[in-house]
Amino acid sequence: MRNVSGWAAHQRGGPLEPWNFTRRDLLADDVAVRVAYCGVCFTDISAIRHGSQFPLVPGHELTGEITAVGSAVTRFAVGDKVAVGNIIDSCGVCPPCLAGRQNWCTEFPTLTYGNTDRRDGGPTRGGYSSEYVLPQGFAYHLPPELDPAGAAPLMCAGITTYAPMKRWGVGPGKTVGIVGMGGLGHLALKLAHALGAETVQFTRTRDKAAEARSLGADDVVLSTDEQRMAAQRGRFDFILDTVGAPHSLEPYLSALAMDGTLCLVGIPDEDIRVSPLSLIQGAKTLAGAGSGGTVETQEMLDFCAEHGIVADVEIMRPDQVNEALDRLDRNDVRYRFVLDMAAQRP
After folding, report:
1. What is the Cα–Cα distance from 54 to 126, expressed in whole angstroms?
2. Would you state the CATH architecture of domain 158-288?
């Protein structure tokens, strides 16, 4: 077994504390990753509050360096810079897995933490730690052009917004709206702009307009301005809704052009209600998306390297993790927290 240090919640809703634990010895197709940076996601807060597996080591967006490889590993060598996301294994034989869309594995993919490891039956523990061990197929080459701290959130927020935009053909000649400008939304804005679409930011906050334009928005629409929202009717080919709080979808469905798609990647804690006529009139589509498979994740990293896209981050020490979680819960971050795991080993 491999000795690892990390930060864990030992009971539901409890604070994260230093914790030493073990990871499995490398299997033939495993790699060991020394964690350099790990992003802090709202999913981590949800898992701490509502999870069932404790002690819980969160963290599912990390970058680091390969320190050891199994005997059958061919994709990586010691010293390679890599990234790891929220999925670290899958069944490998179902139709989604065979199509390279392991995030929709019909047997459910193995999550980076708070799940059961397919290989040894033990609990998966996340990237708030000194080292991670996983199958080589779920580690990704980190392009040297990408700052490893800013790249860490790409493994969650980046792929979650990139995958649906690629699926629905975002690019030149398309008009795309982004709802929300937080951890997901600010990356969606950068990606849509880089893909070549006319990109419009919807926001409830008037003072975000200048920042939205600096991130790539061609236009900014204040969603609380009913007159301005009404003027958007029929404008958009695709709208990506990143908001995780309850809100009405009707204004955005109205803003879609004929055959347009409103795709949800935020997860409000209330059921969605829409008028059927909002979809029928104009043959519109209400869709959802989440994360991505191995092929599109590497594609996303390479695309971001080509266009110089990383998350806007605030870097904190591991011993500041509880502060980071508290501030994230209060939406006091622009736009993602990242833990520098090398700054202080617990």
Report:
1. 12
2. 3-Layer(aba) Sandwich (3.40)
pLDDT at 55 over 80: yes
Could you tell me which CATH number the domain at 2-155+310-340 has? 3.90.180.10
Domain spans in the chain, listed from the N-terminal domain onward: 2-155+310-340, 158-288
* Look-up of token digits 């920042």: 211
Task: Report pLDDT digits (tens) over 32-52.
Answer: 999 999 999 999 999 999 998
Work out the mean pLDDT of the chain and round it to a whole number.
96
pLDDT band of 269, cuts 50, 70, 90: confident
Q: What is the pLDDT of residue 272?
A: 87
| CA end-to-end distance (rounded Å), the chain | 19
Residue 218 has pLDDT above 90, yes or no: yes
Rounded distance, CA 109 to CA 144, Å?
A: 28
Pull the structure tokens for residue 236.
Answer: 């958009």
216: alpha, beta or left? (left if phi > 0; alpha if psi -120 to 50): left
Structure token pair of residue 293: 């498979």
Task: Measure the CA–CA gap between 158 and 151, rounded to whole angstroms.
Answer: 9
- CB atoms inside a 10 Å sphere around CB 172: 8
